[in-house]
Amino acid sequence: MDSLEELETTAQEVLGKLKSRNPFQSHWDTAAFIIFLVFLGTVLLLLLLACLHCCCHHCCRQSSRSPKVRAMQESSKGVDNLALDP
């Protein structure tokens, strides 16, 4: 029951701050919230770029290469290691 009362008290505080239209008590609270939003936006942008890379990488990669380059890459099976030669 104690945790339920604590949760209710916290909800009342949050609702009171929203009703007063002053959700942040100081400029530091506002700055921290803005930093959090910038971080969240950066993470979402990186996720979007990763999804675009995964979805569009195959279609863009196939059309941008010439047939000669594709044939050379498909025929090569490895790289000669010249450090092993006597």
Automatic annotation (TrEMBL):
This is Small integral membrane protein 22 isoform X1. It is found in: Membrane. GO terms for biological process: regulation of cell population proliferation. Pfam families: SMIM5_18_22 (PF15831). InterPro entries: SIM_Modulators (IPR053081), SMIM5/18/22 (IPR031671). Residues 62-86 are annotated as: Disordered. It comes from Hipposideros armiger. The chain crosses the membrane at residues 31-56. It is a single-pass membrane protein. GO terms for cellular component: membrane. PANTHER family: CLCA DOMAIN-CONTAINING PROTEIN (PTHR36982), SMALL INTEGRAL MEMBRANE PROTEIN 22 (PTHR36982:SF3). Keywords: Membrane, Transmembrane, Transmembrane helix.
